[in-house]
Design a protein that fits this description.
With about 325 residues, this protein is of the alpha+beta class. It is built from 9 helices and 13 strands. The structure holds (3R)-3-hydroxy-3-methyl-5-(phosphonooxy)pentanoic acid.
């Protein structure tokens, strides 16, 4: 007997970085998913195999036994291990052993929330295997715990979208509000392939703000206004306006020092190929950019990004959060 569950990736549409200073941000779950297969074992060990990370091994009696990937395997598999342990504990089946297999079509370490999606899918698969119906809040909390191992103090955007799906407005002191967006948001995501550290980029903005408080505070306030205008544009289904707002948001991010030459190259290529707007998404530095397009321009824009050395894929927002596949 085995159970397969999946959960979606996310992208930030507006407001990254500025959200750290209390302004609102908009993020959406997208139709790229991580899949976890869970199976019971005869013993109480936890075996985890991640095809995409190329690592596997067994957690038993507080020790890790690598199978593939050597010592690094433990660090890479620990968030999933945390998700399994927490789920077993919520189900009051701490002594149950499970085999976990992960496969995902979400690019890793690109700011798309792949680790949170894996954790949410794992919690869903393991609980279903044990015939326990966890609430979405419990799954979110489990994925958040796993994220804490990866990011220290995560905002919670990744695990909440992996769990609930949809489009969310997020603000530090107000939490998450689900946005009802009737229109599609056709996007091309372009990955520069350059790894970056979210923490370092957040620090970079903080330092720039310390040196130039007036200028950067103005940027932060303006970014908040752009995000709120984007909420209105989404409600109206006005993609043209949404694209313009993305371009302005990108300028503000560049002024905050988190864009980069490879990101700018992909952003300009996308706009030139007919995108309605384009910006970096997530922490910046490297990682991914997004381009908003009318459906008939999607392929053209994806090709333009690839021609500039990016890895492109077409994405659409999804309302489907974590779910059982079989
Ligand atoms: O690239 P990501 O998904 O790690 O996004 C980072 C978003 C920031 O606003 C830069 C940081 C944060 O915690 O909100």
């Amino acid at each position: 007997m085995f159970v397969v569950a999946s959960a979606p990736a996310k992208i930030i549409l507006f407001g990254e970085h500025f959200v750290v200073y209390g302004e609102p941000a908009i993020a959406t779950a997208i139709n790229k998913r991580a899949q976890t297969t869970a199976q019971k074992r005869q013993d109480n060990r936890i075996y985890i195999n991640s095809f995409d990370l190329g690592v596997s091994g067994t957690f038993a009696e507080n020790r890790f036994h690598p199978e593939k990937g050597g010592k690094k395997a433990q660090t890479k598999l620990e968030p999933t291990h945390i998700a399994v342990q927490r789920t077993l504990s919520l189900c009051r089946k701490e002594q149950t052993g499970v085999n976990i297999t992960i496969s995902s079509n979400i690019p890793v370490a690109a700011g798309l929330g792949s680790s949170a999606a894996v954790a949410a899918a794992t919690a869903k698969a393991v609980s279903k295997l044990l015939d326990v119906q966890l609430t979405l809040e419990e799954i979110y909390q489990t994925a958040y715990e796993a994220e804490r191992y990866v990011h220290g103090t995560p905002s919670g955007i990744d695990p909440i979208l992996a769990t609930y799906g949809g489009v969310l407005l997020y603000q530090k002191d107000k939490g998450f509000t689900k946005l009802t967006v009737k229109t599609d948001i056709p996007l091309v995501v372009g990955d520069t392939g350059i790894k970056r550290s979210t923490g370092k980029l957040v620090t970079k903005v903080r330092q720039l703000r310390q040196k130039n408080p007036e200028t950067i505070n103005k940027l932060i306030t303006n970014a908040g206004k752009i995000t709120l205008r984007a909420v209105e544009a989404m409600k109206k289904g006005d993609l043209q306006e949404l694209g313009e707002l993305m371009n302005i948001n990108q300028k503000l991010l560049a002024e905050a020092g988190v864009s980069s030459e490879p990101l700018e190259r992909l952003i300009h290529a996308a706009r030139k190929a007919g995108a309605l707007g384009a910006k970096l998404t997530g922490a910046g530095g490297g990682g991914c950019m997004i381009a908003l397009c009318t459906p008939k321009k999607l392929i053209q824009v994806a090709e333009a990004i690839e021609n500039q050395g990016g890895k492109a894929f077409i994405a659409e927002k999804t309302d489907e959060g974590v779910k059982i596949e079989t």
